[in-house]
Amino acid sequence: MSEIWEQETSVQNHGAFCAALDSLPQWFALYTTPRNEKHVSEMLTQREIESFLPLYRTTRQWKKSRPVVLELPLFPTYVFVRIARQARGAVLGTPGVLSIVGSPREPWPVPDPDIEAIRLGLQMRKIEPHPYLTVGERVRIKSGVMAGVEGVLVRKKNDFRVVLTLGTIMRSIAVEVEADDIEPIGTLAKSHAIPWVA
Questions:
Q1: How many CA atoms lie within 13 A of 18 on its CB side?
Q2: Dist. CA 190–CA 187, nearest whole Å
Q3: How many CB atoms lie within 10 A of CB 91?
Q4: Which residue, 34, 28, 25, 3, is CA-closest to 86?
Q5: pTM (2 decimals)?
């Protein structure tokens, strides 16, 4: 009889744990219709839903015109939102939102350190999109506001960039760094790092 009671208690505790987890706000990536990221972000703000649309500045020049500075989404077709799992319906009802990134049964949360690293990169104003990478020489930024963040080292002209990969949405960004501010990492250092590259 006590075994049955223990099993029932265990099932009840597991259910309570899952319900508590569902009520905690977490970051999720929303997949939006193309070129609607800013509109989706504005709609979420109007609905008092915390969102984050990272933008970067770039200069474009079309034929016979002056250069224009644009603010473009760092991750085209994605907006990040901080919600409890049970609030998915309110977000999915927002015009321009196609889905929440995840499996058919479960959305995948974006780790808080990933969002924080993007915010820090934006503060440095030396950030841009980069092709998605999964292999390459791994390095750690050892000084500055992004100290501790890991990524893949690449070179663009005479500048070094660390490519940070957000595995949840299979996108990467490149942050410009000084050569003195990075160090190679080995497998032993992996356990102490912010989990950027899968």
A1: 7
A2: 5
A3: 22
A4: 25
A5: 0.67
CB atoms within 10 A of CB 125: 9
- The angle subtended at Cα 77 by Cα 81 and Cα 172, nearest 5°, is 85
Residues 37, 75: Cα–Cα separation, whole Å: 9
SS3 191: helix
CA dihedral 40, 41, 45, 51 (to 10 degrees): 130
Cβ-contact 22, 85 below 8 angstroms: yes
Q: What is the pLDDT of residues 49-105, one digit of tens each?
A: 999 999 998 888 888 888 888 899 999 999 999 999 988 988 999 999 999 999 888
**Residue 78 and residue 75: Cα distance in Å, rounded?**
6
